[in-house]
Amino acid sequence: MPIESRNPYTGRVERRFRAFSWSKTERIVTQSHRAAATWRTTPFAERTRLMRRAAELLRERQDELARLMAVEMGKPLADGRAEALKCALCCDYYAEHAEQFLADDIIKTEAQRSFISHEPIGVVLAIMPWNFPFWQVVRFAAPALMAGNVGLLKHASNVPQCALALEKIFHDAGFPPATFRTLLIGSDLIEPLIADDRVRAVTLTGSEAAGAQVAATAGRYIKKTVLELGGSDAFIVLADADIEVAAKTAAQARMINAGQSCIAAKRFIVEKPVLKEFISKMKTHLLAFRPGDPLAEDTQYGPLARPDLADELTEQVNDSIKQGAKVELYGGQSEPGTALFRPMILSNIRPGQRAYDEELFGPVALVLEAKDADDAVRLANDSRFGLGGSVWTADVARGEALARRVEAGAVFVNSLVKSAPEMPFGGVKKSGYGRELSYLGIREFVNQKSIWIAKEEKPAAGKKKVE
Ligand SMILES: O=CCCC(=O)O
């Protein structure tokens, strides 16, 4: 794929970039490796000062960053500003808590003193997607830099300006330039980068296929990976739930980033007595979303990030309809090769249909009928993915009990699934492994080193020590 900014709403190429050669990339790895040796010794107070400045810059530049997201991947301006502010929050969070999260863990043993220290591991390669071009990177970079690591970013090839703008923020904040670098490279250079001994670990957010490939390469070179992959989150609605609130939130949850979020609700599993009412209300709320140019202030959802993504989604929908799915709300692309995709609802979703088995990365809501709460949990868990999920019920204790039975990295009761700096984020099954955010996220890329100080042998009183 070429490294270029192509506005998905107009189809116009805004900027093209020449991909870095291997020799340029390798030079940057050398600089990063050198920087890692000194950055690891920088006191927390200094790292904190710089990270707080990065947060300020994210706030100050929110309009500029939102414009870049709009033109590179179609995110409406208001959502882009919100993303920049969430990144600032994450920087502040780790600025405030990193030292405490990485403090020694004292372990009681027969030693005089024994503890786990958490030490930086060096250069970490981050392979990141276009859907939240700043947030996905910052939630890696803020804890990594605060832990004393350095980051190399290989961003998706359709968001190069976002990648460079973030690099500039860290540099303008005062981080030594080699502690965070954007590599404008094609995917052909990922393997040699992972193979390089100076790159110590890899984090990837992206598709299951990309995750499997990167993890296999990293395994070959004995490098740790954290993988945050796809999701097909269940949104369970029990008959006692407030259906109006559930349906309104369902529409919002499906429309996050025009449906292009790993934790957008995708499968709406509804108890039979409230199924019709839920579909009808959700339809009303989906139709109320205003599409348009992401650069227009009143747009609520823009195009998908690329026209080929909309073509692929159309194929998944059409195949599912041929396989028996029923259209409850018509929408989709106006014609092939265009990126705008209007929301749709499909029901009668059955195993063997693409809609049942695959992730649909766009605004298509799948409605599944559940006989009862147990059946709803069974359906929720009958998925290759396990990223997030939510349960809607008037009985909060029952909601919590069901939440514990859903196989996912996060389950919310009476709320849509969202990420936040304080809570761990990640999945089970084909949604990946490892955790980002919270104190767990910062401990993924550190050497958890055991240190043991033996008791001193004191010579018995009155006896002379014999050498
Ligand atoms: O696409 C997945 C991440 C979305 C989020 O953290 O809000």
UniProtKB/TrEMBL annotation:
The keyword NADP applies. Keywords: NADP, Oxidoreductase. InterPro entries: Ald_DH/histidinol_DH, Ald_DH_C, Ald_DH_N, Aldehyde_DH_dom, ALDH_GabD1-like, GABD/Sad-like. Pfam families: Aldedh. Gene3D superfamilies: Aldehyde Dehydrogenase, Chain A, domain 1, Aldehyde Dehydrogenase, Chain A, domain 2. SUPFAM superfamilies: ALDH-like. Belongs to the aldehyde dehydrogenase family. This is NAD-dependent succinate-semialdehyde dehydrogenase. It comes from Hymenobacter yonginensis.
